[in-house]
Every structure is written in C-alpha cells, then in structure tokens.
Design brief:
globular, about 325 residues, mainly alpha, about 70% helix, 12 helices, single chain
Amino acid sequence: MIGTFDQGSFYAYLCLAWFGHMCHGLAISILGPAQPYLAQNVGVLNEQINFIWTGRGVGSCLAAIMTGLVFKSLLRKKWQKLLFLGSFILCAGVFVGLVPWVSSFSILMPALLVAGFSSSCFNVGNCALTVYMLGPERSAPYMQALNAFVGLGFMFGSLIVRPFLPEQEEDSSICGSIKEEMMTNFSFTGEVNEEGNVYVDELVENIPDIVWPFLIILSFHIFTGLAFFVLAMVKCPLPEHKEKTEKADEELCNKTEKKEMNILKHPYILLFLSFLYFAISSGTEGFFISQSYTFGICGPHKMIPTKAASLTTVYFSCFLAGRLSGVFL
C-alpha cells in the first residue's frame, strides 16, 4: 500500500515523469522536419544526413544496456535515482539544443549519439523506477501512459516546428541538388567562400530559422531536469513496492500452480519473436518519423513545407491515440 504522504509524492513524481517522456518525444520528432535543413547546414546531402538516426539509435542501444546494469545495482537510494534521471534529461536537452549550431557533420553525429544516449537513459530509468515503486502488476497502465506521453511529445514537436518553416520551398538545394562546392564552408554565420566566389549568405536566406524550436525544446528539458534535482535534494519520499503478506503469497502460488499447464515450453522462442517484432515495429516508426517531411517536400507531391509538416502531425496523432488506447486494456 501507498501511504497518504507517499501517495502525494508519487503523483508529483509521476506528473514530472510524464512530462519528461514528453520531452523525450520532442527531442526525437524535431529532427524529422529539421532534417533537410540540418543537411544543408552541415554541408551534406539528404542521403548522408539520414545517418543521424543511426547515431541516435546506437546511443539508445548503449543506454538500454548501461541503465539496466547501473540503475538497480549502483543507485541504491531513491534520491540517487532521481538525480540520475535529472542529469540525463538535462544532458539530452543541452545536446539537442546545440544541434542547429553545429556546422560539421562529423560533430553532429556524436552530438546526436550523446543526445540519444542521454534521453534513452532517462527513458529506461524512468520506467524502471515506476516498476520499483508499483511492482510489475500495478505499474502496467502507468508504463503505457509513459509511452503515450512520448507520442504526445512527437505530436507537439511537429506543431512547435511548423511556425518556423518557410511558407513555400523555392530552393531546390533543400532536396539534395546543391552543388558540392556550394556546400563548402556553409554555416549560419554567412561566411564567404572566396575560392568558389559564392556568398553563403544567399544560401542562409533559404534556411528557416530552425534554431528557435530547438531552443524551446531545450527549455522543456531544462525545466524537467531542474525539477528532478529539486525532488532529489528534498529527498522526496517515493513509495517502494513491497511483497504481499504470506496469505496473499499463498493465494498467488495457488494461482500460479493452476496456470502451470499454460506456461510456454519454449520461452526463448517467445523472447526471439518479441525481439523481432519490436525491432521491426521500431524500425517502421523510425522510418516514418525521419522521412515523412522530406518525402513531402522532395517527393512526387512537392508539398509546401507547412503542408508536409502536417504529414508528421497526422502520423503522430494516430500514434498517440494507439498508445493511449493501451492504457485502458
């Protein structure tokens, strides 16, 4: 059972955890509409900028392994767990905020790897702490709600970036036809490429001001990180799941014995199939997140940027609806 005081602390943490997962979704979704402009900023084609998703994915995989090992074995106290969450959500926000200022692809890749690593550390740690407080059974709807708030962040991210996109795309270089010599020394500073006698200011004018949506998302991360620090400093008395009484344990054992006939004989096959399903599902999600906007403006439909951004909004809205429906199942 959760006491009255612990219950208030738990709901305070839970609201903050949901907000943090929304930040996780914001940090991912902003990269989709910004992708072609980041490609031009760092001087690469759209085919190459797609590797930013690979770098972020590698960081997420490393985070899942590291957090699973560290969060339970090394972080014994609750305030340490909260400090861990605050540190990594803050770190993720800082590196995401730096993305539009980076003018080198070799720097952009590790920056997004660190952002993906930090954001996934928060994601995995947050889920682990929820199970730690509620137990494996009661935590199920709350875990699904956390995932739903990631979808909410996806949707909000597509809405935040839309006002900063151009009303119509007149520069074909956004779709990857920019000449290689014109991309040299490209940056936000408006430098001049004396060798090719090309003024980069002309290219900068065609790039939307994508700095602001990144800074807005950074501010959300900073707020969340500092709020977790406050909870850690006051040593917020979060509840801890405790085993049931002996009588309840006996009832649970009886139920377990009755279900023995339904236990799968090949758990490793189930594990492999589950891994395969989630790999394919996540890959499909990543494809739509990364390519919807670029396909809209560069594909056969040649949509204007704001209309192309609506593709991601519609997709993320349906994604959110699916995640929310799972809360009640």
